[in-house]
Amino acid sequence: MPIWTLAKKDFRVVWRDRRALIVLMVMPLLLILVLGLSLGEGFGQKPDDRLRISIVDLDEGFVEHDPQTGAKIPHHWSTLFQDDLARTAGIRVERIASLEEAKTLVDRGRRAAVWVFHAHFSRQLSNCSFLLGGVNPLDGDGVDLATLDAEILRDPTQLTASSIIAQVAQGTTLRVVLPWMIGRAFDQIGKRLGSSVQVGLKLLFPSYDLTATTWAGLTRSKPSDQTADIATYQPPEGNGLLNRGAARYQILVPTYLVTFAYFLVLIVGRLFVSERQQGTMTRLRAAPLSRFQILAGKFLPTYFLSVLQGLFLLVAGKLAFAMSWGDKPLWLLPVVLSTSLSAMGLALVVAALARTESQVAIYGTLVVLALAGASGSLLGDRELMPAAMQQISLFTPHAWALDAYRQLLATAEPKLSIVRECCAVLTAFGVGLILIGWKLLRLDGQS
After folding, report:
1. Long-range pairs for 109-113: beta carbons < 8 A, 24 or more residues apart
2. CB 183 within 8 A of CB 211
3. Which end of the chain is more exposed for a tag (fewer CB within 10 A), N or C?
4. Domain residues of the chain, as ranges?
């Protein structure tokens, strides 16, 4: 078929231009490498003014038997503590997997303090009571955490920050321990002194529910509707010289994959300009070939090259930087295909407007950099842009490609509906730009 013949010819032309191939394939990797080595763990994260409370949960829980029914009553108090913290405004909770990792973070000054729940925390707290024989954790400073089999690891070089975290821990501990101790004491009052004493105390303290075992219940207050925000600590720095596995590569690789996908305009523009300048385009028009066949023959090799570039960077990102492809790796393929289609459409528009190779370089570079800047891909992450600019960026195909990659590569549970929407919009961008380029393009080189 004439289309395949033209496509093979243009593919050989593109393949001989090794410098352009190096720019498309190697330059993104070099840029990702340099930025990956230079950027810190906070890259890609908006500043968070909330106080971070880091926790190590080694609590084994405790099972209590109801003395009347014999039923097992499980207690896992550390979970309640974390939930109380996470629902407190201005606080975010971070779980650290092991005690050794927590000690390392504190020793290196990366965490001012870490709250540790040891194995018998629930057992000790369940035994807390004002009654004879119970565990009394209260002291002059509030709560003695060691009595509850808990502790706070502190960085001695960050005394202010660690003291604030310790005071927050004290407040949360009191909100959990006191209602439990009061509720147990009130229950024993009813059993040992009679229900009439319980009724009298209820009338004496009408603002409190002395039978409750939670702070909200004790104070008869509405429970906080703050959404619990508990995150798991992820080592951000990666391993080895290249920081392989660092979280920043989940953002850097797709960001510069998208940015460099649109440098395709330079190659496509040069192909059309050189064909017109050498007169081969005029000869093609004189041949028994339709306009569609000529454009399709030139479209296929460059589109294939763009798809190859996208897949190459994803594979290289996994092999070189140990980035993850997420839980839905097969969905990366439609994102690559639709991104390449939109890049091809933009390339065709630039090829239609440019008349010389200098114009291709000027127009193409200006358009690519302007769109990359407006979309946020030059920043590395759209989330770093102001909210208004994020909305404006949706007028660029880059933004939709970045959103799709972010869902698949930087989100624990990707929403495939968003990925499908992004692919559809990218395809619409591609088809629309191709139609515009088709209308503007003059194959004979005349205006």
Report:
1. 109/155, 109/157, 109/158, 111/54, 111/155, 112/154, 112/155, 112/158, 112/161, 112/162, 112/165, 113/54, 113/152, 113/153, 113/154, 113/155, 113/158, 113/161, 113/162, 113/165, 113/166
2. yes
3. C
4. 2-42+239-440, 51-232
pTM for this model (two decimals): 0.60
Q: How many other CB atoms are found less than 10 A from the CB of residue 80?
A: 17
Write out the two tokens for 345.
Answer: 């459409």
Per-residue model confidence as pLDDT tens for the chain (447 residues) = 566 666 666 667 666 767 767 777 788 888 888 888 777 655 655 555 678 899 999 999 887 766 566 666 677 888 888 888 887 777 888 899 899 999 998 998 889 999 999 999 998 988 888 877 788 898 877 899 999 999 999 998 898 989 999 998 888 888 888 888 888 788 777 777 777 776 777 777 777 777 776 676 777 777 665 555 677 766 656 677 777 777 788 888 898 899 888 887 777 777 777 766 666 666 666 666 666 776 777 778 888 888 988 999 999 999 988 888 988 899 999 999 999 999 988 888 888 887 777 887 788 888 888 888 888 887 766 777 777 888 888 899 999 999 999 889 877 778 899 999 999 999 999 999 988 988 887 765 444
Give the bridge partners for 150, in sequence order: 117
| Residue 278: count of CB within 10 angstroms of its CB | 10
Asked if residues 215 and 87 have their Cβ atoms less than 8 Å apart, the reply is no
Query: Measured at the alpha carbon of residue 155, what is the angle toward residues 150 and 158, in degrees to the nearest 5?
Result: 125
Instruction: Give Cα separations from 111 to 38, 85, 151, 159, 390 (angstroms).
Output: 21, 17, 15, 11, 32
Residue 88 CA to residue 84 CA, distance in Å, equals 7
